[in-house]
Amino acid sequence: MAIASINPATGETLKTFEPHSSAEIEQKLQLAAETFQSHRRTSFEERAEKIGRVAEILENEKLVFGKLMTTEMGKPIKAAIAEAEKCAWVCRYYAENAQTHLADIVVETDAKKSFVRFQPIGPVLAVMPWNFPFWQVLRFAAPALMAGNVGLLKHASNVPQCALAIEDLFRRAGFPEGTFQTLLVAVQAVERILADERVAAATLTGSEPAGSSVASIAGKHIKTTVLELGGSDPFIVMPSANFEAAVTTAVKARTINNGQSCIAAKRFIVSAAIYDEFERSFVEEMKALRVGDPLEESTDIGPLATPQIVKDLERQVNDAVSQGARILTGGKRLQRPGNYYEPTVLVDVNPSTKISCEEIFGPVAMLFRVADINEAIQLANSTTFGLGSAAWTNDAQEQERFINEVEAGTVFINGMVASDPRLPFGGIKHSGYGRELSEFGIREFVNIKTVWINQ
Ligand code: NAP
Predict the structure, then answer these.
(1) Residue 11 CB contacts under 8 Å (≥ 6 apart), including other chains
(2) pLDDT digit string, tens, across residues 366-395
(3) Is the pTM of this model over 0.70?
(4) 252 CA distance to ligand 1 middle (Å)
């Protein structure tokens, strides 16, 4: 079956691609294995020079890359351009810091000298999602290549043009062809690729079922994995918070990337002391969002990436309503071409129903009223996910409790959860394991080799 690039704002098919044949996959795996043998011997300086060049191209051509992302998966153009800029940032970060992060660590023992050396492990398969079609890939590739590994990308099947543009980006920056290759393949091909002896490890960003499947194949073949999966992040607001900033940030945190972000805030847990005012202001700001053509600079919310996502949202909202939830604004798809869904606010969602803890991918927010901090923490943790979390309070004791007791890979106090190349990123529970970014990310796909030298 052909892999299609379809504009979610219009439904128009932009391009189709034939998946790579078995022979082409074989050729690419062989090239990856051979290129690894030369790439692993290059110096940090050489790699940094080329990754720096990737950053330059991203910056120089951010409008072109931005437009490509927007027409292929629907994110507003402002956000798409910012994504290209952020990719340049992660490249520069690793170009400057990889050598320090991977420097030998001397450990005093009874040997004459003993130390830890970090070495690359080989071709790494990256299975990636469409929602940040450049960022997800670059945040894997920059540290992986700087560490001396080579990359194989199986991107989401609705963003083939982005996948090919990224492959081209590395080639234009001067990396030999086998250093980073895109495999245009369907999900069914992943098992064979991952089972191949030449592939050393895998990283997957995506849904729980996809993560579970890739991890079990990798487990069978004794290969390491990093999983960055879904989330149902809480956004908690306590009475001492800066109220206006909390409301505005809450709306942004829910609707960023048209609501299709793993770390979008999805459950708003608000102290009863300020709940009514928060609900009023939040609904007002959700209603004011401009929904429309994602190529327009003024658009806040564009179309969802695929028709299936609109169907999933409709099912989730209808289920919630049938179980007692009320819609304060939105609640239906827009009657126009493209995959548009109204910014929506749900209240009275029963915390014991499925929707209250499953991931909602789209501009649909749920508000919950809580009596105190104990109830806030208990509700925040009542999900199988544990990716990000935000808590708004100016009370130091409350801040400490949120930091210690919320079950998540990240806690932002008085802010919106966001990734940053300098800080580790990842989740616990069903949100996955392992970390990306920072020194922790670059150490995921290396052999941590112990060296012990006597006289
Ligand atoms: P998805 O359906 O799981 O797809 C992600 C990738 O996995 C795609 O390349 C997909 O290929 C592939 N895939 C799907 N099923 C697979 C299987 N059984 N075996 C191997 N590969 C498989 O997720 P999505 O809808 O694209 O992305 C949204 C999900 O990603 C959300 O749950 C979101 O929270 C999560 N996400 C997490 C993070 C994070 O950092 N934690 C960041 C962004 C997104 P096809 O496209 O060909 O199906």
Answers:
(1) 337, 338
(2) 999 999 999 999 999 999 999 999 999 999
(3) yes
(4) 23
